[in-house]
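Hi Y.,

Following your request, here is the sequence exactly as I used it, all 718 residues.
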Amino acid sequence: MDINQVITGELGVKRWQVDAAVKLIDEGNTIPFIARYRKEATGTLDDAQLRTLYERLLYLRNLEEKKEQVLASIEEQGKLTEDLKKQILAAETLVVVEDLYRPYRPKRRTRATIAKEKGLEPLAALITLQKADKPVETYALEYVNSEKEVATAKEAVDGAKDIIAESVSDEADYRSWIRKATMQKGKVISQAKDEKAESVYEMYYDFEEPVSKLAGHRVLALNRGEKEKFLNVKIEAPQEDIIRYLEKKMIHGNNPYTTPILQEVAEDSYKRLIAPAIEREIRSELTEKAEDGAISVFKKNLHQLLMQPPIVGQTVLGWDPAFRTGCKLAVVDPTGKVIGTTVIYPTAPTTPKKIEASKDLLKKIIPKYNITLISVGNGTASRESEQFIVELLKEIPQKVQYVIVNEAGASVYSASKLASEEFPKFDVGQRSATSIARRLQDPLAELVKIDPKSIGVGQYQHDMNQKKLSEALSGVVEDCVNKVGVDLNTASAPLLSYISGISGAIAKNIVAYREENGRFTDRKQLLKVAKLGPKAFEQCAGFMRIQGGDNPLDGTSVHPESYEAAEKLLKKQGFSLDDIAGGKLTGLSLTIGDYAKVAKELEIGEITLRDIVKELEKPGRDPRDEMPKPILRTDVLDMKDLKEGMILKGTVRNVIDFGVFVDIGVHQDGLVHISEITDKKFIKHPLEVVSVGDIVDVKVMSVDLKKKRIQLTMKGIN
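Below is the corresponding structure, written out as tokens. Let me know if you'd prefer a different format.
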């Protein structure tokens, strides 16, 4: 198999692009580095294309390896024919290779192998030939042998039937046809184990849907319901069609002695051997597809969340709400440094005295630290804390706003080894309040400290292949961190570890070097960091920024390998390096008439030249600035304040297959069903229209106070 050609067809790109990308990957280059600094070589393949290419490359190489193992195993048995070899080499999936290998796979002792040990293969062959001219039992008498534990002619026939049944089940073409028929005509059936039991799976207590139409989120819901022992789930195949098919394949003519036996064998082979295996395979395939779909949504949601714009230049009060144990507060300055922590008791069980004391304390803290923003976690007691904050804001002269932030993962971080290293003297509440403040100041820098699975976007994350999910989400974090770049002098070790070419150990060494030798003033100093060699430097240097360093280019995403070209360009166009920091290069692109000619003069590619110019015009620009800013609030809404037809602004918190959850400032997110997202066109998935973090206008359709459900629509709002 020509792997690169297969990938070329799948990606819909040119062959030379795939060849170049594979070569770069094999040389140890990372995806972010290739996407950003090797555009010439790959014809500007972006990070999403490169990740897909990388995944397929690993799968297809694994497939080729499997084929070699299978061919070697069959050849060792002396059973490899030219035709079989061709079939194995032509297989495009692991399932097909496994089907072809099945008859030759070393087997555990089955009913068929026991029958073979009893010498019943010739009898099985006689039945298969369908030439018997007397009852098969008569032939079977020859095989009755007490030493071989064949007591009767019936036992001999039964053993022969077992041998035929297994050989039928091993036939790759039959399995392939049956798998296809079950996929096309089969149904997924789900029943309740106990109809009276209350659960979230009640819609699946008596459920059936064609296999071919089953949506991914339903597959994952059924799997979870089965795992939690609320549901019995099975696949109902077109059994009659399948058994007729097997009979047609097995029976030639109509021999009165062998036909009834072969009809029995066809049914036994399907029900006992083929059906359970095909059901397992199909369910596994459905789960895999559903997982891939869910992971894809998860990735997009996570990308949006990580790329939320930072709120810079503000002192933020992080507020971790709670009832009995009190609300933990942390004051964090604009650089992310914690300058004070405390606990207040404004929520139940409390007293008017404690509420007043909490207000008095905040009235002192807010002007003292010049707090302009309060970041409130959306967990337990968030609602009550919000009401308290709104009352407080009405009583103070300072202009202070608040934001409800998704605190998913804050408790995971606060109890982690990393948090205890970062804040050894803080308790988990103080760490959590700090994280809640910081994830508003710089969402990316804070959220990288948390396992992506715990960040709270997506569905069924605990039910899927964890390795696959972790790899996919780590890829998203890596892409985001490298897109934004990091400040080499302030970035934490977790943030640095996502930079291209930097491992966890090297990230710690960078921080240790910084603490020992003071701030970095030149990118080249990275080469003095322990274990950071020339290859790692090549991969990471362009993503590391130094503000106010020796070379103004160190504060941009221009790679050191292009410094010479950048300096020549500036000189040629009548500028100097100092103009970079002064922001005097906004019209640089206008001074370049012919990019191809200039690129040739500078001995670099045209794409690289355009990237350098774009970067020098806006040095160190943050791609997150283009994303929607969070909604800052000063007043509160209660669920019972909501009226049908009310139009509100909200933030998209989560996108799932059947709709989006929108935060409208009432603690309980409202659901916009997929059918209520747009009236312009039919959409297959909400992500076609909205993303996490988007600010949207919604209209209230219905409010169920008892079930705490809010139905919203985005239709018909001008």
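The first strand starts at residue 187 and ends at 192.

Thanks again,
Q.
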